[in-house]
Amino acid sequence: MNDPNSKYECQNDTSKESSVKPPLQFFNPHEFMVTNENPILPKENEAKLVINHFPNIYEPRDSLAYATTRIIRIPRIYSTVRDSDFIPQFSTYVPGSEPAAISNEDITVFEAKGRYDDAEFGYTSLTPLVPGLISETEFETIVKTINQHLYDSLNPYNGHLFIENVLEFLTGGVYSKVINKYLFTGYSKRRLQDLEAYIEHLNTEVFKGRDGLKIINPRLSGFLSVC
Amino acid sequence: MEVTSDVQTRKLPFVYRFITNWLVTDPNIIDKYELYDKENQPKKNYQASRHQNVPYIYLLGGRWRTIRRKPINVMSIIILIVPMVLFLVFDAKWTWRHVSPSLVILFVYFWLLSMSFFITAAVADPGIVPRNIHLPSKITHSQIAQAPEEYFYTVTLPYHYGNDGVTVKYCSTCHIWRPPRTSHCSVCNCCIINHDHHCVFLNNCVGWRTYKYFLWFLLTSVTAAGLLIVISFVEVFHYRLVDNSSVHSFHQSIREHPVSLLLAIYGCLSVVYPLLLLVFHLFLTSNNITTREYLNYVHKHPSSDYINVYDSHSVIRNLYINWWGRASSVTLVKQSDTYQPGDIRFERVQPLSSFNA
């Protein structure tokens, strides 16, 4: 983005679309790299480890679940719908296959190369999640459904939302406080409840056989990332 | 160490508990006096917030909140209530009979609307993001031992149109990767989605969930003030508008309706600030830019080419999104929910620092 050639191009060109910036590429900002201080095989400590899974913060720190499970964060993506600053959408890229992810042509699945913070990591952005625990298509379906629910709930051009907002203005906010709470649920909240029901369905039925696999409700994580 | 045993062994009287644990709760005071021991764990989320320097006070069992600063919002409410009371006591009946009942009804209606929107904007959750969600590694002694360097960079990710992206930054205090337009308010010490500004008169931040109430408040209060001005001036100059009035001069009119003149002047004075704000926010919303972005980027550096990626390049669309299109959605951190012990969102973790010992 700070390419000196493009800066000078700006000055000479008179047209508005003059700055030739290289197109931005998406990647998962939650990842970071550390030196491999505890390699699994003794001689393998040249490359840096990519940290892409994290301690399970949704369990109390003294529980067994905290010690044995990890969280993979699916980041938010901003290039798929308009108004993505307030409609959270999550990236459907398989973790590790984003356009600007750290990758290596020889490595196609997660391979543990070193230990850090009581867990094992590899040299690329690939995670043990796909295709280890879920298949690629399943992953995409899940994230796409979550995205669709969120879009339905918060899309400002939705007729339901407009009518509810007008009603709320005319009643001075009483509509959402009294009627919505005690008589029927507002449209936006209903869609979010659908989302929670879907996640519940996934965790209890679809992931039944697969030990330890669980999707955390995005609302708990503030719609910041799907875990 | 027998310092707090007095407080713990004595059972606090119900009225005291009702007032300090439900009616008005300041979690910082609870923390200071260690009012909770092992048996008496905090039952609700708002009682458990342990963060440093978060000056929130919770009212009515965590449903309302305000900031522990000078109570300017109380002064604002008094400024709102005074003309209404004066009007109802002195002028309402006269205006109803001699001018038109519809004016009275309209004024009362808009006043009620503006009062309701003011209270909603002042006590609602503005869109606070839960903390400690994106911790990079395990916590040791309430802090992260080694902060990754990457978490201090500003990341630019592609946006829906154009080549200019959105900037995403990690908040070291809240330990989250902030979505674009989410900012950390220095007064509230929290990250708030779509943060617009911290309003001193509301004693609350204006953000994702409170922006539309703020805008509606401005609109209805300007309308109500306008109606008040019209009603009051009509009352004062009524003798000129009708033929068979018993009043024949301005001085006599003022003696008959003293409060109307007072209300007219009050209306003229009090409409100025909300009107200015309303015009300013109409300008901002027609460009879909927040106050914070405007003041930081456009106003400070007028020559720089700041590109507002959120502008949909259509004034109608921008106005629609901000005034009529926003869903209030849900609170992300529901303070009135039952507290789960070990919930990391309420634990104190030191801010991420780049100086590692």
UniProtKB/TrEMBL annotation, chain A:
GO terms for cellular component: endoplasmic reticulum membrane; endoplasmic reticulum palmitoyltransferase complex. Residues 71-227 form the Golgin subfamily A member 7/ERF4 domain. It comes from the Eukaryota. InterPro entries: Golgin_A_7/ERF4, Ras_palmitoyltransferase. The keyword Plastid does not apply. It is found in: Endoplasmic reticulum membrane. One of its GO terms (biological process) is protein targeting to membrane. Residues 1-13 have a biased composition (Polar residues). Its main location: endoplasmic reticulum. It is a peripheral membrane protein. Residues 1-21 are annotated as: Disordered. Keywords: Endoplasmic reticulum, Membrane. Belongs to the ERF4 family. Interacts with ERF2. This is Ras modification protein ERF4.
TrEMBL record, chain B:
One of its GO terms (cellular component) is endoplasmic reticulum membrane. It is found in: Endoplasmic reticulum membrane. The chain crosses the membrane at residues 72-90, 102-124, 213-239, 259-284. One of its GO terms (molecular function) is protein-cysteine S-palmitoyltransferase activity. Keywords: Acyltransferase, Lipoprotein, Membrane, Palmitate, Transferase, Transmembrane, Transmembrane helix. Residues 169-297 form the Palmitoyltransferase DHHC domain. Coiled coil: none annotated. Its EC number is 2.3.1.225. InterPro entries: Palmitoyltrfase_DHHC (IPR001594), PFA4/ZDH16/20/ERF2-like (IPR039859). One of its GO terms (biological process) is protein targeting to membrane. Belongs to the DHHC palmitoyltransferase family. ERF2/ZDHHC9 subfamily. The DHHC domain is required for palmitoyltransferase activity. This is Palmitoyltransferase. It comes from Scheffersomyces stipitis (strain ATCC 58785 / CBS 6054 / NBRC 10063 / NRRL Y-11545).
